């Protein structure tokens, strides 16, 4: 496993914390803030996943497609 | 003992996804994708060794390089298409997954055309005119 697996727990933690903040902000009556927080967390996690997907495609190209 | 690592990772991730899915299904989906990619990459490193051995054998047996290259490309296309289709199906979009699989099949067929041409030419030469 060449990849440090902290990212898995990072993503899970981000998800849980964002859900918590969302609930708290909703209880306080700030709906729009809650949605922005959710969107921001989603963006961060999506960025991590996108970087890893780029890595994956590069690896597959190197392994199967003769480095073209 | 890579398999223990993979299975442990899968179990831990399943647990985390079960926890998150109640609150935010989007994060659960992204987490599943992430772990799938990690497992896939760790397998690709192993596959590279096998393919290196295959390549060695092919050069020693003086097989036409076109064949091996095409077959490897086809295997790569199959892996990528399968991965994409599974991720898409996990997100609940079965129809898009079917389209991805269709694209994979068509592209594999296009890749196989040179080999089919060679085979048919050989058969035509063997057949008495």
Automatic annotation (TrEMBL), chain A:
The keyword tRNA processing does not apply. It comes from the Bacteria. The chain crosses the membrane at residues 7-25, 37-57. Keywords: Membrane, Transmembrane, Transmembrane helix. NCBIfam families: spore_III_AC. This is Stage III sporulation protein AC. It comes from Lihuaxuella thermophila.
Automatic annotation (TrEMBL), chain B:
Coiled coil: none annotated. Signal peptide: none annotated. It holds the Pfam family SpoIIIAC. The chain crosses the membrane at residues 26-45, 65-85, 106-127. The keyword Ribonucleoprotein does not apply. Keywords: Membrane, Transmembrane, Transmembrane helix. This is Stage III sporulation protein AD.
């Amino acid at each position: 496993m060449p990849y440090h697996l902290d990212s898995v727990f990072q993503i899970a933690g981000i998800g849980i914390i964002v859900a918590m903040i969302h609930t708290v902000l909703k209880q306080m009556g700030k709906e729009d803030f809650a949605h922005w927080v959710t969107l921001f967390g989603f963006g961060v996690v999506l960025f991590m996943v996108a970087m890893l997907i780029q890595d994956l495609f590069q690896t597959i190209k190197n392994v199967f497609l003769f480095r073209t | 003992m890579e398999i223990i690592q993979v299975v442990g990772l899968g179990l831990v991730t399943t647990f985390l996804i079960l926890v998150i899915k109640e609150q935010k299904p989007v994060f659960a989906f992204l987490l599943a994708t992430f772990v799938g990619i990690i497992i896939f990459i760790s397998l690709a490193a192993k596959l590279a060794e096998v393919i290196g051995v295959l390549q060695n054998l092919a050069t020693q047996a003086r097989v036409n390089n076109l064949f091996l290259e095409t077959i490897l490309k086809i295997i790569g296309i199959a892996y990528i298409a399968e991965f994409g289709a599974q991720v898409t199906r996990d997100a609940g979009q079965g129809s898009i997954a079917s389209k991805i699989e269709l694209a994979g099949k068509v592209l594999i067929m296009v890749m196989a055309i040179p080999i089919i041409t060679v085979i048919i030419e050989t058969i035509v030469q063997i057949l008495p005119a």
